[in-house]
């Protein structure tokens, strides 16, 4: 793999501005996609309002007490207000956390549901690691905003209103002086928020590249060791860590600089309130108690404005998260409910001038036509990369063809109910890991009925898997480890074959890997496949000579087109690719 992915890139400012547009829109859209716990969000907002009301009482009581009003009533009320403030703060934290968890869950459920129904094409574009990180981390960013910052903001809007009416009530000149500052303050924070957003985004990107690098390399440890690349990888890792460090460092500087800058702004403001306040007190326009209460109110106002600027930064920062979540939940889903029910499953499948590409401008299958007769075995052979696996995917409608059509009887397969269509196949993929759990669970995956031990044994026997299964400590109840890691590649493949056998669908689709199995397990798989294929409609990509030889027809693929079609004997005469393929297989099995 090229290392360019991990290099530090400079971003064009114009491009960056373009990409920062549309954040608010995507936010609102995202808001209404999931089933959100609105009752909780509204309840939380009401608590914030209550909390603001309580906080607004503080300066008033301070002023009363400072001016010597120590009536029982005033003192008791002041105490109640203080205690209520403390209790409310606690309750707010608690409810806000619960609301955030509920929102997290809603988005995660939505994403999971959408992922299950998304076409494979999405999985070519977004890698599993990335999907996990979006489901786990990006949802949290969104829930923090919805489940904590926006309710708090609504609460504090009331606070702004309360403070402004109060300070105007005290002295309009002083209040006007304060208000003039608000635009300056907001302007500063918008400017600063953008700056901070960028450094934050950069840090996020570097971190995700770093995690991708680490997880990819850790999965390839045998490769690294066998090619003695440890030192090279250490260097690459160092580079990545350095890039991340630099980004995080820049962000820390930007974060830190906020304090002194904000301090200077606040200082100017405080100087004004103090200076002008002293003048007003000295002329007797206001009392010293009012001046103090005024000072407290203004402090409150700055606190609120500061929280707005934080909200603004946070929302800007979450832009990446919303875009990343949107990519997972906004795409097209597979269409299951199509017009035609599948009534007759005994037809031939016909590929008719099919073109297909995974990515634009890179045709993988071109003008491909052949028939897969019902009740017969069709073997597909061809060089690596010639499109064998792709053809199997197209037949099962994992992707739709770009040009041409695939017919079943006289109907385009795109018209059949998708689940019904796919249910018609038992598929053993080329490279399919197992699910963690027991061997039994893996063999019976996707089978809705109870499966007896006898039946299990029968399919395992037919897949040449029974022997090694019984050799494991717990037989069918042995754990296969994550992805089936405690079994060998050949053993995994045979479990997959046993599953396909148990499913017993009309069409058997096998994609046998040209694997580096030892000849004994290769033989075992070959035998298993051979037994499996007989007397069934099968489409097999095989490397086992006996399976291929016995097939009713063999399709030789080359660069996504049919090179030739025929039986073993016919092709030996007509196809040079086939001829050399058979020579190769014979040599292999004799060696
Ligand atoms: N998910 C994908 N996204 C983009 N290109 C792909 C994808 N899968 C396969 N290709 C490309 O399509 C071509 C055909 O791949 P395919 O897997 O069908 O070959 P194959 O004949 O099954 O090869 P092999 O014998 O090695 O399994 C290859 O050039 C491959 O790079
Ligand atoms: Mg393949």
Task: Write structural notes for this entry.
A 6-stranded mixed β-sheet has the order 6-7-8-3-9-10, sandwiched between helices. It has a domain at 24-329: ABC transporter transmembrane region fold (Up-down Bundle), CATH 1.20.1560. With 591 residues, the protein is of the alpha/beta class. The protein starts with 12 loop residues before the first helix and ends with a helix. Helix 2 (23-31) packs across helix 11, helix 3 (38-66) runs antiparallel to helix 4 (72-117) and helix 3 packs antiparallel against helix 10. Strand 9 and strand 10 form a beta hairpin. Mean pLDDT is 87; it is low at 1-5. The protein contains 21 helices and 10 strands. Magnesium ion (MG) is lined by residues 388-389, 430, 511.
Strand order of the largest sheet: 6-7-8-3-9-10
Q: End-to-end distance, in Å?
A: 34 Å
Whole-number mean pLDDT = 87
Please tell me how large the radius of gyration is. 34 Å
**What fraction strand?**
5-15%
CATH topology of the domain at 24-329: ABC transporter transmembrane region fold
Number of continuous helical runs? 21
Low-confidence stretches: 1-5
- Most strands sheet: 6 strands, mixed
Structural class: alpha/beta
What is the name of the CATH class of the domain at 24-329?
A: Mainly Alpha
CATH superfamily of the domain at 24-329: ABC transporter type 1, transmembrane domain
Secondary structure: number of strands? 10
The CATH architecture of the domain at 24-329 is Up-down Bundle
List the ions, cofactors and other small molecules found in this model. Answer: adenosine-5'-triphosphate, magnesium ion
Helicity range: 55-70%
Overall geometric form: elongated
């Amino acid at each position: 793999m090229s290392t360019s992915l991990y290099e530090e890139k400079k971003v064009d400012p114009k491009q960056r501005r373009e990409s920062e547009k549309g954040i608010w829109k995507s936010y609102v859209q995202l808001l209404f996609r999931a089933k959100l716990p609105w009752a909780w969000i509204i309840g939380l907002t009401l608590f914030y309002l209550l909390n603001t009301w309580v906080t607004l009482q503080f300066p008033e009581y301070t002023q009363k007490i400072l001016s010597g009003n120590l009536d029982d009533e005033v003192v008791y009320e002041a105490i109640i207000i203080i205690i209520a403030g403390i209790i409310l703060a606690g309750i707010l934290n608690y409810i806000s956390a619960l609301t955030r968890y509920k929102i997290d869950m809603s988005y995660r459920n939505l994403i999971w549901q959408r992922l299950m129904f998304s076409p494979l094409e999405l999985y070519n574009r977004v890698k599993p690691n990335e999907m996990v990180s979006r489901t786990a981390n990006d949802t949290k960013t969104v829930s923090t905003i919805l489940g904590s910052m926006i309710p708090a903001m609504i609460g504090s809007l009331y606070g702004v209103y309360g403070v402004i009416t109060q300070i105007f009530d005290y002295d309009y000149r002083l209040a006007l002086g304060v208000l003039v500052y608000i635009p300056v303050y907001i302007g500063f924070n918008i400017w600063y928020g953008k700056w901070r957003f960028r450094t934050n985004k950069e840090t996020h990107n570097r971190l995700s590249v770093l995690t991708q690098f680490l997880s990819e390399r850790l999965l390839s440890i045998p490769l690294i060791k066998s090619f003695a690349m440890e030192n090279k990888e250490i260097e690459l890792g160092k580079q990545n860590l350095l890039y991340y460090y630099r980004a995080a460092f820049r962000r820390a500087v930007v974060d830190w600089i906020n304090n002194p800058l904000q301090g200077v702004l606040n200082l100017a403001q405080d100087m004004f309130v103090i200076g002008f306040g002293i003048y007003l007190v000295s002329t007797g326009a206001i009392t010293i108690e009012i001046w103090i209460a005024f000072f407290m109110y203004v402090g409150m106002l700055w606190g609120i404005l500061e929280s707005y600027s934080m909200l603004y930064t946070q929302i800007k920062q979450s832009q990446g998260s919303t875009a990343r979540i949107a990519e997972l939940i906004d795409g097209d889903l597979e269409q299951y409910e199509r017009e035609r029910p599948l009534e007759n499953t005994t037809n031939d499948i016909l590929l008719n001038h099919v073109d297909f590409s995974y990515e634009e401008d890179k045709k993988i299958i071109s003008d491909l036509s052949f028939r897969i007769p019902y009740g017969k075995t069709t073997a597909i052979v061809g060089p690596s990369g010639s499109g064998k696996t792709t053809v199997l995917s197209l037949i099962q409608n994992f992707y739709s063809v770009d040009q041409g059509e695939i017919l079943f009887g006289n109907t385009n397969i795109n018209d059949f109910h998708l689940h019904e269509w796919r249910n018609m196949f038992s598929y053993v993929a080329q490279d399919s890991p197992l699910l963690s759990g027991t061997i039994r669970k893996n063999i019976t995956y996707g089978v809705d009925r109870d499966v007896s031990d006898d039946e299990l044994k029968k399919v395992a026997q037919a897949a040449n898997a029974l022997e090694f299964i019984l050799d494991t400590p717990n037989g069918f109840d042995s754990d296969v480890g994550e992805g089936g890691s405690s079994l060998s590649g050949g053993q995994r493949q045979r479990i997959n074959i046993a599953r396909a056998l148990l499913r017993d669908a009309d069409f058997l689709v096998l994609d046998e890997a040209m694997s580096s199995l030892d000849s004994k397990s290769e033989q075992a798989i070959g035998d298993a496949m051979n037994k499996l294929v007989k007397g069934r409609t099968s489409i097999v990509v095989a490397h086992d000579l006996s399976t291929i030889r016995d097939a009713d027809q063999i399709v030789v693929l080359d660069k996504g087109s049919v090179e030739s079609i025929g039986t073993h004997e016919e092709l030996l005469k007509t196809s040079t690719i086939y001829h050399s393929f058979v020579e190769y297989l014979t040599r292999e099995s004799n060696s």
